[in-house]
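re: that chain from earlier
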Amino acid sequence: MVKIHKISNSHKKIAALAVLAVVVIYALLAITLKLWPLHKRVFRTASNVNNSLPRNHANTGSNSSGTASSSPTPQGDNPKAPAQINTNTKTLTAPSGTFANLYDATADTQMNSICSTTPGATCQIIFTKGGVSIALPVKIADSSSSATWAWTPGQIGLSNGSWHVTAKATLGSQTKTTDNGSLELVIHD
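^ sequence. v structure.
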């Protein structure tokens, strides 16, 4: 009877070690494949980006610094501007355009982004590396279907490495995303 009790305890120890081994292997695989439930994704929107690309206006004056002294502010420059369209009857167009004008840059390289979509829709350009996503501020596409940004990688917090680029447009309850495919923005020293 004593031998049976010892064998039974041995089987319990082996079973417990097998369960522990499976848990450890799962944890290692999950961490390696970034599937661990505690893995956090970081999403940040840059707030210090110029409202739009420089525009030439034929009827605006220039001050002594050579910049326009007065120029109209298009609706696309203000994400809180009321849309002039009925979002319930318009069909959202997938975002397209020049999401980044260069794909090899340093932290201080001047960058320009253009997102074309349905007028009145919001647009956002998103850069992702690993679990971190950094987005240009949300803009509303103007009457010519464009939202524009002027920025530098350092200004929005892009670090060295390859960043995947996507654009997201939203109109009412409709959302469409355009993936930049295999093109990645590479930031280097």
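The longest helix spans residues 2-32.
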